[in-house]
Amino acid sequence: RIYTDMQQVLNAIDHPRFVFTNEEKEADILFSFSHIKDYKTMSTERPHVLLSQFPCENLLTVKDCLASISRRVGGAEGPKWLPRTFNLKTELPQFVGYFKQREQRGEDNHWICKPWNLARSLDTHVTTSLPYIIRQRESTPKVVSKYIENPVLFHRDDVGMVKFDIRYVVLLRSVRPLKLYAYDVFWLRFANRPFTLDDLDDYEKHFTVMNYAPGVQLKQVHCDEFITLFEKQYPDYPWKSTQDEIFKTFRELFQAACSKPAPLGICDYPLSRAIYAIDLMLKWETDQKGKRVMQPQILEVNFNPDCARACKYHPTFFNDVFSTLYLDETQNCHVTEIL
Q1: Is residue 221 part of a domain?
Q2: Which domain of life is it from (predicted)?
Q3: Exposed e or buried b per residue across 57-85, where buried means at least 16 C-beta atoms within 10 angstroms of its C-beta
Q4: Is 92 a domain residue?
């Protein structure tokens, strides 16, 4: 029996092993949109109830925490798969020093300022100005991340070479043992204007989130069509190899997030399950052999993501999600085991 306050879930699940209840007290599964805070009471008063969140998962979903735990991979510079990120409230001196070092070496110094815990590109700014970045501390708490100056681009017939990002839905079944799955369908978002490193306030050139802006064109391409077009544009880079690298990135991220006990890591609460959306881009790097490679770059991890498109175009989406998370059954589900 499922109790949920999410209309998408109520409308989408028709699996014979799940039924809904209007009484929270009767539920075996609580799938809640709002944050659960009192896990201790839940564990003592309702020890059989399965949840849709993990204690301390904000280590992934809040941007400054994401940057902090990611540094457990790759040392002081952090992992290759996360743009170098600083907390503007607590790491301003370190950021200024790093900015100045790059300036002296003649390296690119485009940066993007983002609020810790807002989505949809709200209050987000791209700039090369150190004073402007410092002034961002006066508004909402923010991180500053290295702006990806050399992204892998996608050719749109109607526009040209544009930025794009990719959203994967991942399912965390348990922390110990660490069991992680990715939904087999991924989603794409595209900029509406050709990419160049100028006009930094041109939203439709530098950002890809168009589905919440009124009067703005929204380009939609199904992932199967995208793979065909992508491999035509980049014949030396088969998508399977790229996706393998993306999944390797997800493994390293979740291993880092679960490597320490709570509150320094995601808590091993045996009744918890969770669904996250990971937004990422690809950028050009050079490997040790001098070959150009596509390096995944994680942008953010989203709590309780908007699954409207998933439900619209893939009617079994939530059946697959619930079967994987709550029945531990993946056969005939559109998921791939990552860990």
Answers
A1: yes
A2: Eukaryota
A3: bbbbbbbbbbbbbbebbeeeebbbbbbeb
A4: no
Strand 2-4 versus strand 29-31 pairing type: parallel
Global confidence as pTM:
0.94
Q: Are 25 and 332 in contact (CB under 8 A)?
A: no
Is 278 among the domain residues? yes
**CB within 8 A of 124, min separation 6: which ones?**
112, 113, 114, 115, 207
Listed range (3-12, 138-147, 206-215, 251-260) with the worst mean pLDDT: 206-215
In a domain, 198, yes or no: yes
What angle is formed at CA 139 by the lines to CA 134 and CA 140, rounded to 5 degrees? 110
What H or E segment, with its residue span, contains residue 253?
helix 239-257
CA distances to 95, 155, 162, 222 from 100, in Å = 9, 35, 30, 42
**282 and 296 Cβ atoms separated by less than 8 Å:** yes
Range of the domain at 12: 2-83+148-337
Residue pair 124/115 in contact (Cβ under 8 Å)? The answer is yes
119 pLDDT exceeds 80? no
Cα–Cα dist 278/152, whole Å? 18
SS3 content of the chain, % helix, strand, coil (to 5): 30, 25, 45
The tokens for 237 are 């880079």
* Mean of the per-residue pLDDT values of the chain: 93
Domain CATH number, residue 20: 3.30.470.20
Alpha-carbon span 170 to 190, nearest angstrom: 21
Total domains present in the chain: 1
